[in-house]
Write a structure and sequence with these properties.
Layout: H1 2-32, E1 36-38, E2 46-50, E3 55-59, E4 70-75, H2 78-83, E5 88-89, E6 95-97, H3 100-109, E7 115-118, H4 127-135, E8 139-140, H5 149-155, E9 159-162, H6 171-175, E10 180-182, H7 191-195, H8 197-202, H9 208-229, E11 237-240, E12 242-244, E13 247-251, H10 256-263, E14 267-268, E15 278-281, H11 283-290, E16 295-300, H12 308-314, H13 322-325, E17 329-333, H14 334-337, H15 347-358, E18 372-373
Parallel strand pairs: 4-5, 6-7, 6-9, 7-8, 9-10, 11-14, 11-16, 16-17
Antiparallel strand pairs: 1-2, 2-3, 3-4, 12-13, 13-15, 17-18
Helix pairs in contact: 9-15
């Protein structure tokens, strides 16, 4: 009887231990299983996983999607932060930016007051940043390629947001103990894809819901303009770019700029030349395809008012294009239009400009903001 009782007790202990191990395993599983996941609707290069005490922000490797993603761990839980010293404390109160596009996102989220350092601020037109630089509340950390590590340490930022380069310039920054967040928005090849990186930036400030609302508002306006473009009776032929140091750079078929033209419902002459970046050709190759195109679309950077004389001075052969002869060149002067800054979060306005200029038959009568028709001789 005593032997049977002993066996029963042993069995009961084993059962309790087994249940305890299962409970601990379940807890561990729950700890590693996100409560929610944000998968973007338009962007392809990031996602956010939400856990009880932290967020896991995953960015697709910028140069090789088969490699492990770049991960940032964010938390406002003091115990979690104590146990995970590499995690970034949120909401971020002090941060450093290296690009004007990051400033555009921050401006939209109203978190520019938290910026304490800026790389190459001479290329940023945002008045809040410029005021901060003048008054010393935002420090110039130098080049984005070689930021001043000593100054960064003195600023004590919660994190530094970078844009990735194939060559990693940020070893000294990491060695200085500065936490880095990688923003790959410029690698997205659609206008709304780049807009949606606003949600990525928002995760560092606990402003995701605000960001999602802004993205959807922009997307709705963009799609409305796209629908208007589809009502056009014709699809005019368009070519882009011009030569630089003997090479003509133009948009590949799936690139950011080519997607604007696609959504504007035009016939882009290189729509069958696949890629997400720029194509590089000699003058003759482009001329052979584009000589009779109806429109020529350009982005220039000129401190003076741009005109046909300036364009032909760059290369007299430009005057042989039909679009030049018929005065059907449309352009954005990035020196004045801020297409790379403000335009990032206003793709609907950029598209509206293109539709109005490339489809005059639609009779749109909106104020042109980023693109104009070249009229000056």
């Amino acid at each position: 009887m005593i032997k049977k009782s002993g066996l029963f007790i042993l069995a009961l202990v084993a059962l309790v231990a087994c249940k305890q191990r299962k409970t601990e395993a379940d807890k561990g599983m729950q700890k590693n299983t996100p409560i929610a996941t944000y998968k973007p609707s338009y962007a392809n290069r990031f996602k956010v996983e939400y856990f009880k005490d932290h967020k896991r922000v995953e960015v697709v490797h910028p140069w090789d999607s088969t490699q492990a993603p770049i991960v940032s761990i964010l938390s406002e839980d003091s115990l979690f932060l104590q146990e995970n010293p590499d995690a970034i404390k949120i909401p971020v109160e002090r941060w450093v930016s290296v690009t004007s596009t990051q400033i555009s996102y921050a401006n939209e989220l109203e978190v520019l007051q938290q910026v304490v350092g800026m790389a190459e601020p001479q290329y940023v037109s945002n008045p809040i940043v410029q005021k901060g630089i003048r008054e010393g509340t935002i420090r110039n950390i130098g080049s984005a390629f070689a930021p001043d590590a000593e100054l960064l340490m003195a600023l004590h930022p919660d994190m530094m947001m970078i844009s990735p380069f194939k060559e990693d310039f940020y070893g000294p920054v990491r060695s200085a103990g500065i936490k880095i967040a990688t923003n790959c928005s410029y690698l997205e090849n659609t206008p709304l894809g780049r807009v949606e990186w606003l949600v990525y930036v928002a995760t560092f400030f606990n402003k995701e819901e605000q960001a999602k609302s802004i993205v959807e508002e922009i997307a709705k306006r963009y799609h409305d303009v796209k629908e208007i473009a589809l009502k056009a009776d014709s699809k005019p032929t368009v070519f882009t770019g011009k030569t630089y140091q003997g090479v003509w750079y133009t948009a590949a078929a799936e690139s950011y700029n080519a997607n604007f033209l696609k959504d504007a419902n035009v016939n882009y002459i290189f729509k069958d030349r696949h890629g997400t970046g720029s194509l590089s050709y000699d003058f003759e190759t482009v001329y052979e395809s584009a000589a009779n195109s109806e429109f020529w679309s350009l982005i220039v950077n000129s401190p003076e008012t741009y005109g046909y004389s300036l364009l032909s001075q760059e290369d007299e052969r430009y005057a042989d294009f039909r679009a030049f002869k018929e005065k059907n060149v449309i352009y954005s002067n990035s020196n004045k239009s801020m297409i790379y800054e403000k335009g990032l979060m206003e793709p609907d306005v950029i598209l509206q400009d293109l539709v109005q200029l490339l489809h005059p038959e639609l009779g749109l009568d909106k104020e042109l903001v980023y693109y104009q028709k070249l009229t000056k001789e």
